[in-house]
């Protein structure tokens, strides 16, 4: 009721990436290719893993779920951004704005937890290879996926529960291409300092907790690999490198935004693009290029397709 009584804002105006028509056409061409590559690339990983019996392992089960989250993240704001390049006044309804905030934080929170689960999987595979199949069974993998989604949704709901009832009584311009939570909070007609601290604490705790868990896992793995010298360890290290690259690309912008969440620079808008639009595309590229099992599965799938046509 608080929002109905106090808020007179029924829609928000998204300022987008640029006012220049030429730049908007350029961005449309670039981000259209990125979007299509991201969705098709992650979809390809899901199809390959589900259709190839050689990839019936916990690591690839978690990887296919990571690809599913990336497909979801690619679609929460990017299609509207592409359409808005051809719209003079870029608006989004209040409900649509809240939905974007909910979806973004759900997907990001879920991906953080899933990356931790994948690091744990690699830690068991390298440090306790003889017990790997016993510990990392399908039941535990399903539990990991369920927990990742549950944490992501709870993390998002905790943000939305306070945001949806804020009094928005006038300013409604969001200097981004989607409803970014800190930018939306700043538009409220009240002192938002406590709300900003609560948002920073909420997001910071889950980000810092996941990041520390990943660092600890990778340190344990690297120490274990360093003590061994075998082809199996080399292969494990190669797989681990792909995980580390994904984590750096995912947490780098995330940590930046949480260090300076409510002070915006011109570069922040383009970091937001990289974080929300480009990162989902990089996961299939990195895992496909660095993982011999995935590349072999692609070749087998292509050969089956050629033989079927013949």
From TrEMBL:
<comment type="similarity">
    <text>Belongs to the G-protein coupled receptor 1 family.</text>
</comment>
<keyword id="KW-0807">Transducer</keyword>
<keyword id="KW-1133">Transmembrane helix</keyword>
<dbReference type="GO" id="GO:0004984">
    <property type="term" value="F:olfactory receptor activity"/>
</dbReference>
<dbReference type="InterPro" id="IPR000725">
    <property type="entry name" value="Olfact_rcpt"/>
</dbReference>
<keyword id="KW-1015">Disulfide bond</keyword>
<feature type="transmembrane region" description="Helical">
    <location>
        <begin position="271"/>
        <end position="289"/>
    </location>
</feature>
<keyword id="KW-0297">G-protein coupled receptor</keyword>
<dbReference type="InterPro" id="IPR017452">
    <property type="entry name" value="GPCR_Rhodpsn_7TM"/>
</dbReference>
<keyword id="KW-0552">Olfaction</keyword>
<feature type="transmembrane region" description="Helical">
    <location>
        <begin position="140"/>
        <end position="162"/>
    </location>
</feature>
<keyword id="KW-0472">Membrane</keyword>
<keyword id="KW-0812">Transmembrane</keyword>
<feature type="transmembrane region" description="Helical">
    <location>
        <begin position="25"/>
        <end position="48"/>
    </location>
</feature>
<feature type="transmembrane region" description="Helical">
    <location>
        <begin position="237"/>
        <end position="259"/>
    </location>
</feature>
<protein>
    <recommendedName>
        <fullName>Olfactory receptor</fullName>
    </recommendedName>
</protein>
<feature type="domain" description="G-protein coupled receptors family 1 profile">
    <location>
        <begin position="41"/>
        <end position="287"/>
    </location>
</feature>
<comment type="function">
    <text>Putative odorant or sperm cell receptor.</text>
</comment>
<feature type="transmembrane region" description="Helical">
    <location>
        <begin position="205"/>
        <end position="225"/>
    </location>
</feature>
<dbReference type="Pfam" id="PF13853">
    <property type="entry name" value="7tm_4"/>
</dbReference>
<feature type="transmembrane region" description="Helical">
    <location>
        <begin position="98"/>
        <end position="120"/>
    </location>
</feature>
<dbReference type="InterPro" id="IPR000276">
    <property type="entry name" value="GPCR_Rhodpsn"/>
</dbReference>
<keyword id="KW-1003">Cell membrane</keyword>
<dbReference type="InterPro" id="IPR050427">
    <property type="entry name" value="Olfactory_Receptors"/>
</dbReference>
<dbReference type="GO" id="GO:0005886">
    <property type="term" value="C:plasma membrane"/>
</dbReference>
<dbReference type="GO" id="GO:0004930">
    <property type="term" value="F:G protein-coupled receptor activity"/>
</dbReference>
<keyword id="KW-0716">Sensory transduction</keyword>
<keyword id="KW-0675">Receptor</keyword>
């Amino acid at each position: 009721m608080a929002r109905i009584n106090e808020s007179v804002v029924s829609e928000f105006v998204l300022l987008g990436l640029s006012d220049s028509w030429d730049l908007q056409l350029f961005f449309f061409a670039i981000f259209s290719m990125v979007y299509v590559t991201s969705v098709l690339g992650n979809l390809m990983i899901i199809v390959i893993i589900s259709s190839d019996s050689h990839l019936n392992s916990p690591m690839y089960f978690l990887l296919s779920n990571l690809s599913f989250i990336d497909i979801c993240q690619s679609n929460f704001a990017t299609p509207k951004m592409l359409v808005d390049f051809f719209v003079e006044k870029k608006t989004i309804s209040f409900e649509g704005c809240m939905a974007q905030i909910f979806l973004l934080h759900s997907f990001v929170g879920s991906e953080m937890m899933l990356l931790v689960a994948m690091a744990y999987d690699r830690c068991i595979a390298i440090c306790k290879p003889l017990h790997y199949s016993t510990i990392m069974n399908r039941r535990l993998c399903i539990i990991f996926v369920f927990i990742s989604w549950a944490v992501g949704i709870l993390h998002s709901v905790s943000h939305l529960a306070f945001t949806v009832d804020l009094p928005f009584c006038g300013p409604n311009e969001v200097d981004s291409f989607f409803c970014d939570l800190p930018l939306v909070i700043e538009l409220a007609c009240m002192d938002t300092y406590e709300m900003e601290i609560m948002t920073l604490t909420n997001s910071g705790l889950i980000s810092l907790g996941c990041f520390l868990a990943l660092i600890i896992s990778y340190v344990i793995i690297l120490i274990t690999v360093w003590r061994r010298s075998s082809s199996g360890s080399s292969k494990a290290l190669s797989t681990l490198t792909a995980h580390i690259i994904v984590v750096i690309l995912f947490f780098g912008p995330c940590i930046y935004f949480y260090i300076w969440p409510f002070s915006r620079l011109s570069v922040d808008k383009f970091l937001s693009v990289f974080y929300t639009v480009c990162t989902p595309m990089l996961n299939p590229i990195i895992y496909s290029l660095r993982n011999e099992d995935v590349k072999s599965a692609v070749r087998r799938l292509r050969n089956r397709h050629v033989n079927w046509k013949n």
